[in-house]
Amino acid sequence: MPLLVELLETLRSNPHLTPASLVERYRDSENHRYLLKLMGWTPPGLDDDGGSRIFKDAMTSLANKEREQHTDNLLQKARDEGLSEEEKVELQRLLRDRSGR
Questions:
Q1: Which of 22, 37, 69, 87 could form a disulfide with 83 if both were Cys (CB 3.0 to 4.6 A apart)?
Q2: How far is CA 16 from CA 11, 12, 21, in A?
Q3: Average pLDDT of 20-43?
Q4: Residue 15 DSSP symbol
Q5: Distance, CA of 21 to CA of 19 (rounded, Å)
Q6: How confident is the model at residue 62 (pLDDT cuts 50, 70, 90)?
Q7: Separation CA 76–CA 65 (nearest Å)
């Protein structure tokens, strides 16, 4: 699961990345081989019509949940101990994105 979270964070920060460029970023990582396998894998039952949409919806849902959890964590930290300037900017962006949905 940590790899998935890391991938989602990387893609959130760099939405322009293609699958190949994402794998290239991990070339020197122990996770590189897993990403190569994942690139060539098609989950059973997924077809070009509905299956890929289901997969994309699931990934979008996971990304949204991760973003909400990160927002909640920053809000809690702001109440408890305060935020750095970088965290404040990030929280503002997350809250702006949340209200835009």
A1: 87
A2: 8, 9, 9
A3: 83
A4: T
A5: 6
A6: confident
A7: 16
